Automatic annotation (TrEMBL):
Keywords: Carbohydrate metabolism, Chitin degradation, Glycosidase, Hydrolase, Polysaccharide degradation, Signal. Residues 266-300 are annotated as: Disordered. GO terms for molecular function: chitin binding; endochitinase activity. Coiled coil: none annotated. Residues 200-285, 295-380 form the Fibronectin type-III domain. This is chitinase. PANTHER family: CHITINASE (PTHR11177), CHITINASE 12-RELATED (PTHR11177:SF317). Residues 1-24 form the signal peptide. The keyword Secreted does not apply. It comes from the Bacteria. InterPro entries: Chitinase_II/V-like_cat (IPR011583), Chitinase_insertion_sf (IPR029070), FN3_dom (IPR003961), FN3_sf (IPR036116), Galactose-bd-like_sf (IPR008979), GH (IPR017853), Glyco_hydro18_cat (IPR001223), Glyco_hydro_18_chit_AS (IPR001579). The keyword Hydrolase applies.
Length: 753
């Protein structure tokens, strides 16, 4: 194993005679000689990050100041760093061992220390682990950057430290694996200063535009200490700083497009990243353009539930440009949109509403009202309120999503069930999917659900132990161990050859004494029985039913047994390939995967929503929609109460698209954070806000990209459908795709009750 370090010489030959890892002894520095905040680019030169914060060049310790002590080397990587725009801050680093590290001579008091780290050497968990202690107390134990954040991914850890002797020492020591502890940057701030930039302002929007002004609003940011204001940018120009979440920009030119972004600032002077761009065109003065757009045509209703109505209409035309549409409920303006669709929410059951739509152009001319549309909302259904979400074991790496995030997002109080994904299926047996993430990974106090750090000798760590803590704090949640998935379904064919042996292996794994109290049952995600997914299965139409029968026999009535199944309701499609009706008697419910109907695997399009609730004219494949699947499963004898409707917390998208409405051509998959053609909702809501709705879901056209995804409004409609159809509830894939405050889960909970 090559150790990529270069020894730093300290200017005295004696330093080379120290035992390996020995720290240089120095007298306490003068109190107050160094002042916070101190921010150091370890192993590198001075740099200013994207939030405008300055980081000092690294240096060796001198008494009364700050610096590193006995560094074992420095190194750099030229690779891009995921999870940050400040690559330069992570690409250089110092290495330490033997309880060497940094010393800061500071007045006594409490400080916040933040370490910024990146792993560019290890390519698997366990290859580099180290301890960190501050003022003699452990801050991180057996910390593994790769296991926590992944390779070449920004990895930040913060902890408070109290100084009582005029010197703050942060020290490092190897604790497993090889190589040395690595630190890319270190900061020390005051106990009231904070060191985490504010969150990015969300949902930047225009609430009105005149010939010379644009009114802006945005959602508030959060900060570890406090947000002090917002910087409003017109293009690259800072036009104002405000303390609230709105501003009206004046002195503009009529008929001109402007681009706005907003950044938040905190008490330490740190800036958030910029909000999503908002393009707004001021109205023309009207001296030349007095021609109104044509009247929007064919206003019609799509999906109507007890509390929502989906509206669509045909586009208007204008001699210059149509800039938007005003949607009226009676005489009340309820929304202004740029696309040709809107879902009106917050309605009352069994109530008639009247809608009209008007078009607007850049000069502020309005069309006449569209045809009047009367819509009567439905009676609230009696469906169930199961709300199940998938938690992925690989999410603890690059996504940095942990069980604790379920709590901090407010989602734990709303969920009824969690599917833990995934266990593998190998050799006809259930096997562990990722032992390190599942039960070995050590959690520090700040990462842990209950604020208690794992110890080296406790019998169970990892996600399983965190889920145990989650259930203790939230006994409303039941957890199922899910096996298979798209990648690991190839083993089910062999399992189907001996269902009893498969069931026995699964029971022994789920009910392992180390974690038997964590799981309340098993979920099978076989993609797909007697059909093709990543691999093709030829085990026959009875195989799925036989496997479910064996699992129920082994797990008994005291455990949950469920399955995630196809939503292909086409004639002769995947629902027809297996006996889902016959197998239903053995299962508590089915998670019907009513998403991924369309996507950029059809690289040239046509563009289509990946999760339509119903069919619509021009849909590329008839029967590729949620309602068709639900009705077909009911027709095969599956009780409605055993069906859960699926929601994707992500979008699918294309690039090279010029047409705003569905059905356009494309040149390939749109870029995504983790996968081309796929992006989390939490990113898309600001990166490419929805511009229209169709078939009960949303779509967005921004630049040359076209995305489809569900929003809180369309989820409200889908939950109404679930209730009206008498379904058992709904589920989603997967937790890390939601916003930090769980807005999609909240919409599901509100709709299901």
């Amino acid at each position: 194993m090559r150790n990529r370090t270069v020894l730093k010489l300290f200017g005295v030959v004696g330093a080379l005679l120290l035992p390996l890892g020995a720290a240089v002894a120095t007298a306490p520095g003068a109190y107050g000689a160094a002042a916070v905040p101190i921010r150091v680019n370890s192993g590198g030169a001075a740099v200013t990050d994207g939030a405008g914060v300055q980081w000092s060049a690294d240096k060796a310790y001198t008494s009364g100041d700050w610096g590193y002590q006995t560094s074992y080397g420095t190194n750099t990587t030229g690779s891009p760093i995921a999870g940050t725009d400040d690559d330069a801050l992570y690409q250089s680093y110092n290495t330490f061992n033997g309880w060497s590290g940094y010393r800061f001579d500071l007045p006594n008091g409490t400080y916040q220390v933040t370490l910024k780290m990146v792993e560019d050497w290890a390519n698997a968990a366990g290859q580099r682990k180290f301890d960190v202690r501050a003022e003699g107390a452990n801050a991180l134990t057996a910390f593994d950057i790769f296991a926590t954040c992944g390779r070449l991914t920004a990895c930040d850890k913060s902890f408070p430290v109290t100084v009582t002797d005029g010197a703050l020492n942060v020290q490092f020591n190897m604790n497993g694996g090889a190589n040395y502890a690595t630190v890319s940057a270190i900061s020390v701030t005051g106990q009231t200063g904070g060191d985490t930039p504010p969150t990015v302002p969300q949902n930047l929007r225009s609430t009105g535009a005149t010939t010379t002004s644009v009114s802006l609003q945005w959602d508030a940011s959060t900060d570890d200490v406090g947000v002090t204001g917002y910087e409003v940018y017109r293009g690259s120009t800072l036009v104002t700083t405000v303390t609230g979440t709105g501003h009206t920009d004046t002195g503009l030119t009529p008929g001109t497009e402007y681009i706005y972004t907003v950044r938040a600032r905190d008490t330490a002077g740190q800036r958030s990243g910029p909000s999503g761009e908002l393009k707004v065109t001021t109205e023309d003065e009207g001296g030349e353009d007095t021609e109104a757009p044509s009247v929007p045509g064919n206003l019609r209703a799509g999906t109507v539930t007890a509390d929502s109505a989906e509206l669509t209409w045909d586009a208007s035309t204008d001699n210059v440009k149509v800039t938007g549409y005003e949607v009226y409920r009676g005489s009340t303006l309820v929304a202004t949109v740029t696309g040709t669709g809107h879902t009106d929410t917050g309605l009352s059951p069994t109530t008639q509403y009247t809608y009209t739509v008007k078009a607007r152009d850049a000069a502020g001319n309005r069309s006449g009202a569209s045809n009047e549309l009367k819509v009567t909302t439905k009676e609230r259904g009696t469906g169930g309120n199961k709300l199940l979400g998938y938690f992925t074991n690989w999410g603890v790496y690059g996504r940095n999503y942990h069980v604790k995030n379920i709590v901090t997002s407010g989602s734990a109080s709303k969920l009824t069930h969690i599917n833990y994904a995934f266990g593998n299926v190998q050799g006809g047996r259930c096997t562990i999917g990722d032992g390190f993430a599942d039960y070995e990974k050590a959690y520090t106090a700040d990462q842990s659900v209950d604020g208690v750090a794992d110890t080296w000798d406790q019998p169970l760590r990892g996600n399983f132990n965190q889920l145990r803590k989650l259930k203790k704090a939230h006994p409303n949640i039941k957890i199922l161990y899910s096996f298979g998935g798209w990648t690991w379904s190839g083993g089910f064919g062999q399992a189907a050859a001996n269902p009893a042996a498969f069931a026995e292996s699964c029971y022994n794994l789920v009910e392992d004494p180390r974690w038997a109290d964590v799981f309340d049952g098993i979920d099978i995600d076989w993609e797909y029985p007697n059909a093709c997914g990543l691999t093709c299965d030829t085990s026959g139409p009875a195989a799925f039913k036989n496997l479910m029968s064996a699992l129920r026999t082994k797990f008994g009535s005291g455990n949950l047994v469920t399955a995630a199944i196809t939503a292909d309701g086409t004639s002769g499609g995947k629902i027809d390939a297996a006996d889902y009706g016959g197998a239903a008697q053995y299962l508590d419910w089915y998670n019907v995967m009513t998403y991924d109907f369309f996507g950029a695997w059809a690289a040239q399009g046509p563009t289509a929503p990946h999760s339509p609730l119903t069919g619509y004219p021009g849909m590329p494949i008839a029967g590729f929609d949620s309602d068709t699947a639900i009705q077909k499963l009911k027709g095969k004898g599956v009780p409605a109460s055993k069906l859960l409707l699926g929601i994707g917390f992500y979008g699918r998208g294309w690039t090279g698209v010029t047409q705003s409405a569905p059905g356009g051509t494309a040149t390939g998959a749109a870029p995504g954070t983790y996968e081309a053609g796929n992006e989390d909702y939490k990113v898309l809501k600001t990166k490419c806000p929805a511009t229209g709705t169709i078939a009960g879901t949303a779509y967005a056209h921004c630049g040359n990209q076209w995305w489809s995804y569900d929003t809180p409004a369309t989820i409200g409609g889908k939950m109404g459908y679930s209730k009206n159809q008498g379904l058992g509830g709904a589920f989603f894939w997967e937790l890390s795709g939601d916003t930090a405050n769980g807005e999609l889960i909240s919409a599901m909970k509100t709709g299901l009750g």
